[in-house]
Amino acid sequence: MKHFQTLPKLSPGDQVGIISPSAGLPGLFPWVQDLGLERMRDIFGLIPVEYPTTRMMNASLEDRARDIMAAFADPNNKAVFASIGGNDQIKLIKYLDPQVFRDNPKPFFGYSDNTHLHNFLWNLGIPSYYGGGIMNQFGMNVRMFDMTIDSLKHALFNKGEFPLDIANNYNDEGLDWSVKNNLALERKLEPNDGIYWDGTTNAKGILWGGCVESLVAQMATAKYLPSDKDIDGTILVLETSENIPQHWIIEYLLVGLGERGWLDKFQAVLVGRPKAWEFNKQMTPQQKADYRDQQRKTVVGTIRQYNARIPIVQNIDFGHTDPQTVLPLGQKARVIVDKQIIYLSY
Length: 346
Fold this sequence. Notes:
With about 350 residues, the chain is an alpha/beta fold. Helix content is about 30%, strand content about 20%. The chain has 2 domains: about 15-145, Rossmann fold (3-Layer(aba) Sandwich), CATH 3.40.50.10740; about 165-345, Glucose Oxidase, domain 1 (3-Layer(bba) Sandwich), CATH 3.50.30.60. The chain contains 10 helices and 16 strands. Strands 6-16-15-10-11-12-13-9 form an 8-stranded mixed beta sheet. The chain has a 6-stranded mixed beta sheet with strand order 2-1-3-4-5-14, with helices on both faces. Helix 7 packs across helix 9 and helix 9 (about 245-260) packs parallel to helix 10 (about 285-305).
């Protein structure tokens, strides 16, 4: 099993770096970013410091990479947070100097396209946290979700093993960020479907994975993937983005992992609740339920062609719906099938 560093926990009053490794959307919707930073100060007691490209749309890959390295290299920063995701982060990985991160390891928070930076750090033996976007989770309309706050506090301040929470209700329908007053409106909540379990074997391992669409790019390049040896004893985590991809995409990713032999190496597979509504794909409640159901069937059907035993747990509260559990990548998790509970180590 791959070895990971143990990173120090933060304390209220600590400084954290804020970057936009993929898209400078804080420049288009500054009121959302500002609200997220205000919550970071007021709820968590942290002092955010933004870097030059954080609010800059279409910043060059080189400039964004420079800001990432500067945020990690600054000893005053005790953690680094991504504002939001995007779609081109894999292109800037080649501009990162691994030694900067080896010399200055610290917790990184982000999700979606930030899968690439998470994977980069994972390969260096630096754990990170999948979740906690400034604009998305910190800048949530009206208030942050309690479950999100609790999960972030575990990641930031607490050490130990905690059971995975399950939300009673969830949100996947946004409100237009271009209308500033929308931040004062509650988002629509719907009843949670609950957790779906498949398999009978308990498991434990180190978390690795991220957003399906980003992992497709990782598989296509094969330049930045972990080694076969490092994947031994890991638990795969997957979730799909606001693109609401067709089911063959997650199927092809899983087929690729299976043909690579990794579905025999993973100890379990954890899948986040798929987002099933976006402004350009406004599905009805029944269409959303059908989409989630078909993705679950696709995941189980594809994995079982390669591995008949590992536990597959789906509809977990991480990824592109809210509330959000922040997953500790590079750290241990236990999947207890007979008690239907998952423990995460922060």
